[in-house]
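**User:**
Make up any protein.

**Assistant:**
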Amino acid sequence: MTCLAAVFLPHQTAFAESADANALYTRHCAECHGPDRLGGIGPALLPQNLRRLRKKAAMKVIASGRASTQMPAFGDVLSGDQIAALVKLIYTPLPRIPEWGRKQIEASRREAVEVDHSITKPLHSADPLNLFVVVEGGDHHVSILDGDTFKVLHRFKSRYALHGGPKFSPDGRYVYFQSRDGWITKFDLYTFEILAEVRAGINARNIAISEDGATLAVANYLPHNLVLLSAQDLRVEKIIPAVSMDGVSSRVSAVYQARGRKSFIAALKDAPELWEISTDVEAMEAGRQLFALRRVRLPAPLDDFFFDQSYRHLLGASRSIKGAVVIDVDTGGVVARPPLPGLPHLGSGITWTWKGRPVMATPHLSEGAVSVIAMDDWSIVKTIRTNGPGFFIRSHEKTSYAWADVFFGPHKDEMHIIDKRTLEIVKTLRPAPGKTVAHVEFDRYGRHALVSIWEKDGAVIVYDAKTFEEVKRIPMSKPVGKYNVYNKITFSAGTSH
Protein backbone atom coordinates (compact mmCIF):
# COMPACT_ATOMS: atom_id res chain seq x y z
CA MET A 1 0.00 0.00 0.00
CA THR A 2 1.16 3.54 -0.72
CA CYS A 3 -1.33 5.94 0.84
CA LEU A 4 -4.39 5.51 3.04
CA ALA A 5 -6.17 8.19 5.07
CA ALA A 6 -9.74 8.62 6.25
CA VAL A 7 -12.03 10.29 8.76
CA PHE A 8 -14.68 7.93 10.15
CA LEU A 9 -17.46 8.42 12.71
CA PRO A 10 -17.67 5.06 14.50
CA HIS A 11 -21.25 5.30 15.75
CA GLN A 12 -22.92 5.71 12.35
CA THR A 13 -24.92 2.93 10.72
CA ALA A 14 -23.19 0.28 8.60
CA PHE A 15 -24.55 1.91 5.44
CA ALA A 16 -23.23 5.33 6.37
CA GLU A 17 -19.92 3.81 7.43
CA SER A 18 -19.51 2.17 4.03
CA ALA A 19 -20.45 5.32 2.15
CA ASP A 20 -18.09 7.40 4.27
CA ALA A 21 -15.19 5.02 3.71
CA ASN A 22 -15.75 5.00 -0.06
CA ALA A 23 -15.86 8.79 -0.23
CA LEU A 24 -12.72 9.15 1.83
CA TYR A 25 -10.95 6.48 -0.20
CA THR A 26 -11.72 8.49 -3.33
CA ARG A 27 -10.37 11.63 -1.72
CA HIS A 28 -7.20 10.27 -0.13
CA CYS A 29 -6.26 6.95 -1.73
CA ALA A 30 -7.47 6.80 -5.32
CA GLU A 31 -4.52 8.71 -6.74
CA CYS A 32 -2.10 5.95 -5.72
CA HIS A 33 -4.29 2.85 -5.60
CA GLY A 34 -6.72 3.68 -8.42
CA PRO A 35 -10.29 5.00 -8.17
CA ASP A 36 -11.69 1.45 -8.24
CA ARG A 37 -8.98 -0.08 -5.98
CA LEU A 38 -7.35 -1.79 -8.97
CA GLY A 39 -3.94 -0.30 -8.25
CA GLY A 40 -1.72 2.37 -9.73
CA ILE A 41 1.52 3.57 -8.19
CA GLY A 42 0.51 1.47 -5.22
CA PRO A 43 -0.85 -2.08 -5.31
CA ALA A 44 -4.45 -3.10 -5.87
CA LEU A 45 -6.50 -3.08 -2.65
CA LEU A 46 -8.75 -6.06 -3.29
CA PRO A 47 -9.31 -9.20 -1.17
CA GLN A 48 -7.71 -11.36 -3.86
CA ASN A 49 -4.54 -9.25 -3.89
CA LEU A 50 -4.38 -8.98 -0.10
CA ARG A 51 -4.72 -12.72 0.47
CA ARG A 52 -1.28 -12.99 2.06
CA LEU A 53 -1.81 -9.96 4.28
CA ARG A 54 -4.03 -10.65 7.28
CA LYS A 55 -6.43 -7.92 8.40
CA LYS A 56 -4.54 -7.43 11.66
CA ALA A 57 -1.33 -6.92 9.69
CA ALA A 58 -3.11 -4.51 7.33
CA MET A 59 -4.20 -2.41 10.29
CA LYS A 60 -0.59 -2.30 11.46
CA VAL A 61 0.59 -1.17 8.00
CA ILE A 62 -1.93 1.68 7.98
CA ALA A 63 -0.98 2.72 11.50
CA SER A 64 2.79 2.32 11.21
CA GLY A 65 3.50 2.58 7.49
CA ARG A 66 5.68 0.22 5.47
CA ALA A 67 9.43 0.59 5.29
CA SER A 68 11.07 1.02 1.87
CA THR A 69 7.79 2.13 0.30
CA GLN A 70 5.85 5.38 0.00
CA MET A 71 3.29 4.13 2.54
CA PRO A 72 3.40 6.58 5.50
CA ALA A 73 2.24 5.95 9.06
CA PHE A 74 -1.25 7.18 9.97
CA GLY A 75 -1.33 6.10 13.60
CA ASP A 76 -1.17 9.70 14.79
CA VAL A 77 -3.87 10.81 12.34
CA LEU A 78 -6.47 8.05 12.40
CA SER A 79 -8.23 6.39 15.31
CA GLY A 80 -8.41 2.62 15.67
CA ASP A 81 -12.02 2.67 14.48
CA GLN A 82 -11.09 4.71 11.43
CA ILE A 83 -8.31 2.30 10.51
CA ALA A 84 -10.69 -0.64 11.02
CA ALA A 85 -13.18 0.99 8.64
CA LEU A 86 -10.55 1.27 5.93
CA VAL A 87 -9.48 -2.34 6.41
CA LYS A 88 -13.11 -3.41 6.12
CA LEU A 89 -13.39 -1.50 2.84
CA ILE A 90 -10.28 -2.88 1.16
CA TYR A 91 -11.20 -6.47 2.10
CA THR A 92 -14.68 -6.06 0.59
CA PRO A 93 -14.98 -7.71 -2.87
CA LEU A 94 -15.97 -5.55 -5.82
CA PRO A 95 -19.59 -6.04 -6.94
CA ARG A 96 -18.46 -7.49 -10.27
CA ILE A 97 -15.32 -8.79 -11.95
CA PRO A 98 -13.50 -5.67 -13.17
CA GLU A 99 -12.66 -5.16 -16.82
CA TRP A 100 -9.02 -5.35 -17.81
CA GLY A 101 -8.79 -6.10 -21.51
CA ARG A 102 -6.60 -5.29 -24.48
CA LYS A 103 -7.27 -1.55 -24.22
CA GLN A 104 -6.26 -1.32 -20.57
CA ILE A 105 -3.24 -3.59 -21.02
CA GLU A 106 -1.86 -1.67 -23.99
CA ALA A 107 -2.42 1.65 -22.20
CA SER A 108 -0.24 0.44 -19.32
CA ARG A 109 2.67 -0.73 -21.49
CA ARG A 110 5.97 1.11 -21.26
CA GLU A 111 9.24 0.51 -23.14
CA ALA A 112 12.71 1.86 -22.45
CA VAL A 113 13.26 5.05 -24.40
CA GLU A 114 16.70 4.03 -25.64
CA VAL A 115 17.84 0.46 -26.20
CA ASP A 116 21.24 -0.25 -27.75
CA HIS A 117 20.53 -3.24 -30.00
CA SER A 118 24.21 -3.54 -30.91
CA ILE A 119 24.99 -5.05 -27.49
CA THR A 120 25.37 -8.79 -27.96
CA LYS A 121 27.59 -9.64 -25.00
CA PRO A 122 27.28 -8.94 -21.26
CA LEU A 123 28.62 -5.59 -20.07
CA HIS A 124 29.93 -7.36 -16.98
CA SER A 125 32.62 -10.02 -16.53
CA ALA A 126 30.50 -12.67 -14.75
CA ASP A 127 29.39 -15.91 -16.39
CA PRO A 128 25.93 -14.94 -17.71
CA LEU A 129 24.67 -18.52 -17.31
CA ASN A 130 25.75 -18.77 -13.68
CA LEU A 131 23.96 -15.68 -12.47
CA PHE A 132 21.34 -15.91 -9.76
CA VAL A 133 18.28 -13.69 -9.81
CA VAL A 134 17.26 -13.14 -6.18
CA VAL A 135 13.77 -11.82 -5.42
CA GLU A 136 13.86 -9.88 -2.14
CA GLY A 137 10.31 -9.62 -0.80
CA GLY A 138 11.23 -7.66 2.33
CA ASP A 139 11.76 -4.36 0.55
CA HIS A 140 10.65 -5.28 -3.00
CA HIS A 141 13.99 -5.40 -4.77
CA VAL A 142 15.80 -7.83 -7.06
CA SER A 143 19.51 -8.62 -6.71
CA ILE A 144 21.69 -10.10 -9.43
CA LEU A 145 24.26 -12.41 -7.85
CA ASP A 146 27.44 -13.77 -9.44
CA GLY A 147 27.27 -17.56 -9.03
CA ASP A 148 31.06 -17.91 -9.04
CA THR A 149 32.13 -15.15 -6.65
CA PHE A 150 28.78 -14.73 -4.83
CA LYS A 151 29.03 -10.96 -5.12
CA VAL A 152 25.96 -8.81 -5.77
CA LEU A 153 26.50 -7.25 -9.19
CA HIS A 154 23.35 -5.17 -9.34
CA ARG A 155 20.24 -4.42 -7.27
CA PHE A 156 17.09 -2.64 -8.40
CA LYS A 157 13.62 -1.84 -7.10
CA SER A 158 10.92 -4.18 -8.35
CA ARG A 159 7.17 -4.03 -8.56
CA TYR A 160 5.31 -4.66 -5.32
CA ALA A 161 4.97 -8.35 -4.32
CA LEU A 162 6.73 -10.19 -7.13
CA HIS A 163 5.72 -13.77 -7.64
CA GLY A 164 8.66 -16.04 -6.87
CA GLY A 165 8.94 -17.67 -10.30
CA PRO A 166 10.58 -15.44 -12.93
CA LYS A 167 11.06 -16.91 -16.41
CA PHE A 168 14.09 -16.67 -18.71
CA SER A 169 14.53 -16.39 -22.46
CA PRO A 170 16.02 -19.59 -23.97
CA ASP A 171 19.49 -18.02 -24.26
CA GLY A 172 19.35 -16.73 -20.68
CA ARG A 173 19.74 -13.06 -21.59
CA TYR A 174 16.30 -11.79 -20.55
CA VAL A 175 14.34 -12.47 -17.39
CA TYR A 176 10.63 -11.77 -17.01
CA PHE A 177 9.06 -10.96 -13.65
CA GLN A 178 5.40 -10.99 -12.65
CA SER A 179 3.83 -9.25 -9.69
CA ARG A 180 0.64 -10.30 -7.94
CA ASP A 181 -0.89 -7.10 -9.35
CA GLY A 182 -0.31 -8.42 -12.87
CA TRP A 183 2.71 -6.29 -13.81
CA ILE A 184 5.12 -8.00 -16.22
CA THR A 185 8.69 -6.66 -16.31
CA LYS A 186 11.33 -7.52 -18.93
CA PHE A 187 14.90 -7.17 -17.64
CA ASP A 188 18.19 -7.48 -19.57
CA LEU A 189 20.84 -9.53 -17.74
CA TYR A 190 23.52 -8.25 -20.14
CA THR A 191 22.97 -4.54 -19.43
CA PHE A 192 21.09 -4.69 -16.11
CA GLU A 193 18.29 -2.53 -17.49
CA ILE A 194 14.50 -2.76 -17.44
CA LEU A 195 13.43 -2.87 -21.09
CA ALA A 196 9.64 -2.95 -20.88
CA GLU A 197 6.69 -3.27 -18.51
CA VAL A 198 3.00 -3.95 -18.93
CA ARG A 199 0.11 -4.73 -16.64
CA ALA A 200 -1.46 -7.90 -18.04
CA GLY A 201 -4.03 -8.44 -15.29
CA ILE A 202 -5.32 -7.27 -11.94
CA ASN A 203 -4.45 -10.38 -9.94
CA ALA A 204 -2.01 -12.72 -11.69
CA ARG A 205 -1.04 -16.24 -10.69
CA ASN A 206 2.10 -17.01 -12.72
CA ILE A 207 3.78 -16.68 -16.12
CA ALA A 208 5.36 -19.04 -18.65
CA ILE A 209 7.53 -18.50 -21.72
CA SER A 210 7.18 -20.47 -24.95
CA GLU A 211 9.85 -22.91 -26.05
CA ASP A 212 11.04 -20.56 -28.80
CA GLY A 213 11.11 -17.60 -26.42
CA ALA A 214 8.65 -15.61 -28.54
CA THR A 215 5.55 -15.58 -26.33
CA LEU A 216 4.70 -15.06 -22.67
CA ALA A 217 1.56 -16.51 -21.12
CA VAL A 218 0.03 -14.85 -18.05
CA ALA A 219 -2.40 -16.83 -15.88
CA ASN A 220 -4.87 -14.47 -14.23
CA TYR A 221 -7.23 -14.77 -11.29
CA LEU A 222 -8.65 -11.33 -12.14
CA PRO A 223 -9.98 -11.00 -14.71
CA HIS A 224 -10.69 -14.63 -15.61
CA ASN A 225 -8.38 -15.08 -18.59
CA LEU A 226 -5.06 -16.17 -20.05
CA VAL A 227 -3.12 -13.35 -21.69
CA LEU A 228 -0.50 -14.02 -24.39
CA LEU A 229 2.15 -11.34 -24.87
CA SER A 230 4.99 -10.83 -27.31
CA ALA A 231 8.18 -11.53 -25.35
CA GLN A 232 9.98 -8.93 -27.46
CA ASP A 233 7.99 -5.84 -26.51
CA LEU A 234 5.17 -7.15 -24.25
CA ARG A 235 2.42 -6.27 -26.71
CA VAL A 236 -0.80 -8.26 -26.50
CA GLU A 237 -0.97 -11.13 -28.96
CA LYS A 238 -4.14 -12.80 -27.73
CA ILE A 239 -6.50 -12.85 -24.75
CA ILE A 240 -8.30 -16.13 -24.05
CA PRO A 241 -11.29 -15.79 -21.68
CA ALA A 242 -11.16 -18.54 -19.05
CA VAL A 243 -14.56 -20.06 -19.73
CA SER A 244 -14.91 -23.84 -19.54
CA MET A 245 -16.63 -26.05 -22.10
CA ASP A 246 -19.61 -26.02 -19.71
CA GLY A 247 -19.72 -22.23 -19.70
CA VAL A 248 -18.18 -21.69 -16.25
CA SER A 249 -16.07 -18.56 -15.85
CA SER A 250 -12.93 -19.48 -13.94
CA ARG A 251 -9.65 -18.30 -12.52
CA VAL A 252 -6.55 -19.85 -14.11
CA SER A 253 -4.64 -21.97 -11.56
CA ALA A 254 -1.31 -21.83 -13.40
CA VAL A 255 0.31 -22.01 -16.83
CA TYR A 256 3.54 -23.77 -17.84
CA GLN A 257 5.66 -24.27 -20.93
CA ALA A 258 5.34 -27.88 -22.13
CA ARG A 259 8.88 -28.38 -23.33
CA GLY A 260 9.06 -30.57 -26.43
CA ARG A 261 5.34 -30.21 -27.10
CA LYS A 262 5.65 -26.62 -28.35
CA SER A 263 2.69 -25.55 -26.27
CA PHE A 264 1.50 -24.00 -23.03
CA ILE A 265 -0.51 -26.09 -20.59
CA ALA A 266 -2.87 -24.37 -18.16
CA ALA A 267 -5.44 -25.55 -15.64
CA LEU A 268 -8.66 -23.83 -14.62
CA LYS A 269 -9.16 -23.38 -10.88
CA ASP A 270 -12.96 -23.26 -10.81
CA ALA A 271 -13.75 -25.85 -13.48
CA PRO A 272 -12.47 -29.42 -14.10
CA GLU A 273 -10.57 -28.56 -17.26
CA LEU A 274 -7.03 -28.53 -18.65
CA TRP A 275 -5.97 -26.44 -21.65
CA GLU A 276 -3.17 -26.96 -24.17
CA ILE A 277 -2.38 -23.89 -26.27
CA SER A 278 -0.19 -24.42 -29.33
CA THR A 279 2.89 -22.22 -29.82
CA ASP A 280 4.14 -24.26 -32.79
CA VAL A 281 5.08 -21.77 -35.52
CA GLU A 282 5.88 -24.59 -37.98
CA ALA A 283 2.36 -25.96 -37.53
CA MET A 284 1.01 -22.50 -38.29
CA GLU A 285 2.99 -22.42 -41.53
CA ALA A 286 1.44 -25.78 -42.38
CA GLY A 287 -2.02 -24.25 -42.07
CA ARG A 288 -2.84 -24.95 -38.44
CA GLN A 289 -3.76 -22.10 -36.12
CA LEU A 290 -1.19 -20.54 -33.77
CA PHE A 291 -2.48 -20.48 -30.18
CA ALA A 292 -5.10 -23.09 -31.03
CA LEU A 293 -6.80 -24.30 -27.85
CA ARG A 294 -7.33 -27.95 -26.98
CA ARG A 295 -9.48 -28.76 -23.93
CA VAL A 296 -9.17 -31.80 -21.66
CA ARG A 297 -11.85 -32.62 -19.12
CA LEU A 298 -10.54 -33.51 -15.64
CA PRO A 299 -12.03 -35.40 -12.68
CA ALA A 300 -11.87 -32.20 -10.60
CA PRO A 301 -10.36 -28.69 -10.77
CA LEU A 302 -6.64 -28.60 -9.97
CA ASP A 303 -4.95 -26.27 -7.49
CA ASP A 304 -1.42 -27.53 -8.14
CA PHE A 305 0.25 -29.82 -10.67
CA PHE A 306 3.54 -31.29 -11.83
CA PHE A 307 4.72 -32.66 -15.19
CA ASP A 308 7.06 -35.54 -15.80
CA GLN A 309 10.12 -34.75 -17.92
CA SER A 310 8.32 -35.79 -21.12
CA TYR A 311 5.33 -33.53 -20.39
CA ARG A 312 3.14 -36.48 -21.35
CA HIS A 313 1.81 -36.95 -17.82
CA LEU A 314 0.46 -34.48 -15.30
CA LEU A 315 0.31 -35.20 -11.57
CA GLY A 316 -2.37 -32.97 -10.07
CA ALA A 317 -3.82 -32.24 -6.65
CA SER A 318 -6.54 -30.11 -5.14
CA ARG A 319 -8.51 -29.81 -1.93
CA SER A 320 -11.37 -31.66 -3.61
CA ILE A 321 -9.22 -34.69 -4.55
CA LYS A 322 -8.19 -37.27 -1.97
CA GLY A 323 -4.54 -37.94 -2.71
CA ALA A 324 -3.57 -37.01 -6.27
CA VAL A 325 -4.44 -37.88 -9.86
CA VAL A 326 -2.23 -38.60 -12.90
CA ILE A 327 -3.58 -37.44 -16.27
CA ASP A 328 -2.39 -38.47 -19.72
CA VAL A 329 -2.20 -35.06 -21.41
CA ASP A 330 -2.62 -36.60 -24.88
CA THR A 331 -5.74 -38.62 -24.19
CA GLY A 332 -7.13 -36.89 -21.12
CA GLY A 333 -7.44 -40.25 -19.39
CA VAL A 334 -6.74 -40.90 -15.71
CA VAL A 335 -3.60 -43.05 -15.46
CA ALA A 336 -3.31 -43.43 -11.68
CA ARG A 337 -4.41 -42.05 -8.32
CA PRO A 338 -1.37 -42.00 -6.00
CA PRO A 339 -2.48 -41.94 -2.32
CA LEU A 340 -0.40 -38.93 -1.33
CA PRO A 341 -0.82 -37.74 2.28
CA GLY A 342 -1.49 -34.16 3.29
CA LEU A 343 -1.59 -31.53 0.56
CA PRO A 344 1.42 -32.02 -1.76
CA HIS A 345 3.19 -28.93 -3.08
CA LEU A 346 3.58 -30.42 -6.55
CA GLY A 347 4.83 -27.22 -8.16
CA SER A 348 8.00 -27.69 -6.10
CA GLY A 349 8.58 -31.26 -7.28
CA ILE A 350 11.95 -32.55 -8.48
CA THR A 351 12.99 -35.69 -10.35
CA TRP A 352 15.96 -38.08 -10.54
CA THR A 353 16.74 -41.73 -11.30
CA TRP A 354 16.62 -44.13 -8.34
CA LYS A 355 17.66 -47.76 -8.79
CA GLY A 356 17.06 -47.42 -12.53
CA ARG A 357 13.58 -45.94 -12.09
CA PRO A 358 12.47 -42.36 -12.72
CA VAL A 359 11.15 -40.85 -9.48
CA MET A 360 9.84 -37.51 -8.33
CA ALA A 361 9.71 -36.04 -4.83
CA THR A 362 7.32 -33.51 -3.34
CA PRO A 363 6.94 -31.91 0.09
CA HIS A 364 3.55 -31.50 1.77
CA LEU A 365 1.95 -28.29 2.96
CA SER A 366 -0.08 -29.89 5.75
CA GLU A 367 2.00 -32.86 6.87
CA GLY A 368 5.62 -33.47 7.86
CA ALA A 369 6.57 -35.66 4.93
CA VAL A 370 8.33 -35.82 1.58
CA SER A 371 6.77 -38.32 -0.83
CA VAL A 372 8.97 -40.13 -3.35
CA ILE A 373 6.91 -41.43 -6.30
CA ALA A 374 7.97 -43.80 -9.09
CA MET A 375 6.94 -42.27 -12.40
CA ASP A 376 6.89 -45.57 -14.32
CA ASP A 377 3.84 -46.84 -12.41
CA TRP A 378 3.08 -43.86 -10.08
CA SER A 379 3.47 -45.93 -6.93
CA ILE A 380 4.74 -44.45 -3.65
CA VAL A 381 8.34 -45.57 -3.25
CA LYS A 382 8.77 -44.04 0.18
CA THR A 383 7.31 -41.46 2.53
CA ILE A 384 10.19 -39.67 4.25
CA ARG A 385 9.06 -38.28 7.60
CA THR A 386 10.27 -34.74 8.30
CA ASN A 387 10.09 -32.42 11.31
CA GLY A 388 7.11 -30.55 9.86
CA PRO A 389 5.30 -29.51 6.68
CA GLY A 390 7.57 -28.16 3.96
CA PHE A 391 7.29 -25.78 1.02
CA PHE A 392 10.31 -26.41 -1.23
CA ILE A 393 12.60 -29.28 -2.21
CA ARG A 394 15.58 -28.80 -4.52
CA SER A 395 18.50 -30.75 -5.97
CA HIS A 396 20.82 -30.86 -9.00
CA GLU A 397 21.92 -33.51 -11.51
CA LYS A 398 25.48 -33.39 -10.15
CA THR A 399 24.67 -33.93 -6.48
CA SER A 400 23.49 -37.01 -4.59
CA TYR A 401 21.41 -34.94 -2.21
CA ALA A 402 18.06 -33.17 -2.11
CA TRP A 403 17.46 -30.28 0.28
CA ALA A 404 13.98 -29.91 1.84
CA ASP A 405 12.84 -27.13 4.16
CA VAL A 406 10.50 -27.43 7.15
CA PHE A 407 8.67 -24.22 6.37
CA PHE A 408 5.67 -24.50 8.68
CA GLY A 409 5.63 -25.02 12.44
CA PRO A 410 8.15 -24.90 15.28
CA HIS A 411 10.97 -26.42 13.20
CA LYS A 412 10.84 -23.69 10.53
CA ASP A 413 14.54 -22.99 11.13
CA GLU A 414 15.59 -26.43 9.89
CA MET A 415 16.74 -27.69 6.51
CA HIS A 416 16.80 -31.45 5.87
CA ILE A 417 19.37 -32.96 3.50
CA ILE A 418 18.13 -36.21 1.93
CA ASP A 419 20.38 -38.78 0.27
CA LYS A 420 18.78 -39.51 -3.12
CA ARG A 421 20.33 -42.98 -3.13
CA THR A 422 19.12 -44.23 0.27
CA LEU A 423 16.08 -41.91 0.61
CA GLU A 424 17.16 -41.11 4.16
CA ILE A 425 17.71 -37.79 5.91
CA VAL A 426 21.47 -37.62 6.47
CA LYS A 427 21.79 -34.16 7.99
CA THR A 428 19.62 -31.37 9.37
CA LEU A 429 20.97 -27.81 9.27
CA ARG A 430 19.91 -24.90 11.52
CA PRO A 431 21.65 -21.93 9.90
CA ALA A 432 19.67 -19.24 11.77
CA PRO A 433 17.99 -20.55 14.95
CA GLY A 434 14.44 -19.28 15.34
CA LYS A 435 14.23 -17.87 11.82
CA THR A 436 12.44 -19.31 8.78
CA VAL A 437 14.78 -21.21 6.44
CA ALA A 438 13.53 -22.01 2.94
CA HIS A 439 14.13 -22.37 -0.79
CA VAL A 440 17.38 -23.87 -2.03
CA GLU A 441 18.89 -23.31 -5.46
CA PHE A 442 22.16 -24.77 -6.77
CA ASP A 443 24.72 -23.07 -8.98
CA ARG A 444 24.98 -24.31 -12.56
CA TYR A 445 27.63 -26.91 -11.64
CA GLY A 446 25.89 -28.30 -8.55
CA ARG A 447 28.87 -27.31 -6.39
CA HIS A 448 27.06 -24.91 -4.09
CA ALA A 449 23.60 -24.79 -2.55
CA LEU A 450 22.11 -21.38 -1.75
CA VAL A 451 19.62 -21.22 1.13
CA SER A 452 17.30 -18.34 2.07
CA ILE A 453 16.64 -16.91 5.52
CA TRP A 454 13.06 -15.74 4.95
CA GLU A 455 13.19 -12.71 7.23
CA LYS A 456 13.26 -8.98 6.58
CA ASP A 457 16.76 -8.94 8.06
CA GLY A 458 17.52 -12.20 6.29
CA ALA A 459 20.30 -13.54 4.13
CA VAL A 460 21.30 -15.92 1.37
CA ILE A 461 23.66 -18.55 2.78
CA VAL A 462 26.03 -20.35 0.41
CA TYR A 463 26.87 -23.95 1.32
CA ASP A 464 29.39 -26.37 -0.12
CA ALA A 465 27.11 -29.00 -1.68
CA LYS A 466 29.47 -31.88 -0.74
CA THR A 467 30.54 -31.01 2.80
CA PHE A 468 27.41 -29.03 3.80
CA GLU A 469 29.71 -26.40 5.31
CA GLU A 470 28.82 -22.70 5.12
CA VAL A 471 30.90 -20.78 2.57
CA LYS A 472 29.40 -17.30 2.69
CA ARG A 473 26.47 -15.39 4.18
CA ILE A 474 25.03 -12.52 2.10
CA PRO A 475 22.64 -10.13 3.92
CA MET A 476 19.34 -9.66 2.05
CA SER A 477 15.80 -8.55 2.79
CA LYS A 478 13.58 -11.65 2.87
CA PRO A 479 15.04 -13.40 -0.21
CA VAL A 480 11.94 -15.39 -1.15
CA GLY A 481 13.57 -17.08 -4.12
CA LYS A 482 16.86 -17.49 -5.98
CA TYR A 483 16.92 -18.61 -9.59
CA ASN A 484 20.01 -19.79 -11.46
CA VAL A 485 19.97 -18.93 -15.16
CA TYR A 486 21.53 -22.17 -16.41
CA ASN A 487 19.35 -24.44 -14.29
CA LYS A 488 16.22 -22.67 -15.41
CA ILE A 489 16.90 -22.53 -19.15
CA THR A 490 18.03 -26.19 -19.21
CA PHE A 491 14.99 -27.28 -17.20
CA SER A 492 17.14 -28.95 -14.57
CA ALA A 493 15.51 -31.98 -12.98
CA GLY A 494 16.49 -30.56 -9.60
CA THR A 495 14.41 -27.40 -9.72
CA SER A 496 10.87 -26.31 -10.54
CA HIS A 497 9.95 -25.24 -14.05
The two ends are 31 Å apart (CA to CA). Confidence is low (pLDDT under 50) at residues 1-19. The domain at 14-90 is CATH 1.10.760.10 (Cytochrome Bc1 Complex; Chain D, domain 2). Residues 14-28 form the longest helix (15 residues).
